[in-house]
Amino acid sequence: MTSQDLSAFSEMFRELASMFRLYGTEEQKASTLSAYFQTFQDYPLERVRKGYEQLKTTATKWPVPAQWIAAMPKGVLRERPLMDWRQMKASDEAERLFYEGELCTCSECADANVTHLNLRYVPCLDADGAVIEYWHPNRNKAVLLGEWIHGYPLTR
Ligand SMILES: [Zn+2]
Fold it and tell me: Cα separation of 55 and 58, whole Å?
């Protein structure tokens, strides 16, 4: 969270404080709020909010920070975009082939003189050159988005 998330966080904090009857003066509550906010600063607001929603239904008393953190979704894996069925199919197929395809005679491969090389399935990169992770809902794990390369890239 950043300082801009303070008001959104305050709302969640006040809601829980009232639901679970947090005792103390306004001053004490304000200092608890700021301590909690600092503790959760490494977590994105959305995860803090999911923890808050979870606590609303499962907590039986005012949560200490460790309980709030435990109520947040684990890891960031689930926040990756979901693969659609085409992407899942392509990814499963590539894995089954150990990322090596057949020989290809398309014009791209013919122009690059690589019709004797097996196609390769490689991770797609984003504009910063980083791999792109998707969530594979059927297998419940993160996988790299990939593509079959043809033509000149195969010579590398
Ligand atoms: Zn080709």
Answer: 5
103: CA distance to ligand 1 center in Å?
8
The one-letter code for the residue type at 60 is: T
Task: Clarify whether residues 63 and 90 are in a common domain.
Answer: no
Residue at a domain's end among 14, 47, 77: 77
Determine the residue type at 108. Answer: E
Q: Ligand 1: distance of its center to the CA of 23 in Å?
A: 69
Ion ligand 1, residues whose Cβ is below 5 A away: 104, 106, 109, 150
**Bridge partners, 136 (sequence order):** 141
Mind listing the pLDDT tens digit for each residue in 47-99?
899 999 999 999 999 999 999 999 987 765 446 788 999 999 999 999 999 99
Q: Are 145 and 122 in contact (CB under 8 A)?
A: no
The residue among 16, 48, 77 that closes a domain is: 77
Compute how many other C-beta atoms are within 10 angstroms of the C-beta atom of residue 1. Answer: 19
